[in-house]
Design goal:
Blueprint: H1 3-20, E1 28-31, H2 35-49, E2 55-58, H3 61-70, E3 83-88, E4 92-93, E5 99-100, H4 107-115, E6 117-125, E7 138-142, H5 147-160, E8 166-169, E9 185-190, H6 197-204, E10 210-213, E11 215-216, E12 222-227, E13 230-235
Parallel strand pairs: 1-2, 1-3, 3-6, 6-12
Antiparallel strand pairs: 4-5, 5-11, 7-9, 7-10, 8-9, 12-13
């Protein structure tokens, strides 16, 4: 790990530890996915081993495996449909706590879990804070059936909203089509900027074949951002 990566990882760990300190005995938690959320799960596991009583709903198979290694008791949304708090990362966050998520492909489960929670706190390094969403490609999860028709419909919608960019089918490391935990594909929309994310979020959901997208609007209640100057908190943490 080079010096820059070490510093970034240290900052992410600081955000994860701060988020873990928000957890109180008896909480029902959503456990997020990704590199920053992994630090939260690790810090939470340490508190659990010290006697903290919680249960968690993981948002991905990778998070489930980590939580099991950490000894965190797990549940499901069927067993525990209402959660107290979800801690998760973000690929981008703006000043209104609107997010782009899904760089790791888990945004469908992440959004379901966040929607079932009274509070969602985002943890991320400060580079994820932006004035306008869209520099990070927007993941759009789609069913494999009728992929080309769905892609055309998304392209027409994007153009009708005055946006420009390329849709790219996400590939796995071996070059095959990336498949989500739910068995779907992801089209990454390289839009550059999204001036009206609320409008795009609501209209994307109207396209048959679109399962979910990575715009999280009105879900995050606060954020903990790790910067070179220390932790910065947004909203209600």
């Amino acid at each position: 790990m080079n010096d820059e990566a070490f510093v970034s990882d240290t900052l992410k760990r600081a955000a994860g530890e701060r988020a873990a300190a928000l957890v109180t005995d008896g909480m029902k938690l959503g456990l997020g996915s990704g590199s920053t959320a992994a630090h939260f799960v690790a810090a939470l596991g340490e508190r659990v081993r010290e006697g903290l009583q919680v249960v968690g709903v993981p948002t991905s198979e990778a998070t489930r495996e980590q939580a099991e290694r950490e000894g965190i008791p797990l549940t499901t949304l069927d067993e525990t449909p209402e959660l107290d708090l979800t801690i998760d990362g973000a690929d981008e966050i703006d000043e209104d706590l609107r997010l782009i998520k899904g760089g790791g492909g888990a945004h469908l489960r992440e959004k379901i879990v966040a929607s079932a929670s009274r509070r969602m706190i985002v943890i991320a390094d400060g580079s994820k804070r932006v004035q306008t969403l869209g520099r990070f490609p927007l993941p759009i999860e789609v069913v494999p059936f009728g992929l080309r028709a769905t892609e055309i419909a998304i392209t027409k919608l994007v153009e009708s909203l005055g946006l420009e960019g390329e849709l790219r089918l996400r590939k796995a490391a071996d070059g095959s089509t990336y498949v989500t935990d739910g068995g779907h594909y992801i089209l990454d929309a390289h839009l550059g900027r999204i001036d009206k994310p609320n409008v795009l979020a609501s209209t994307l959901n109207n396209i048959p074949g679109v399962v979910e997208h990575g715009l999280f609007i009105g879900l995050a209640t606060g954020a903990i951002l790790a910067t070179g100057e220390g932790l910065v908190e947004l909203g209600q943490v």
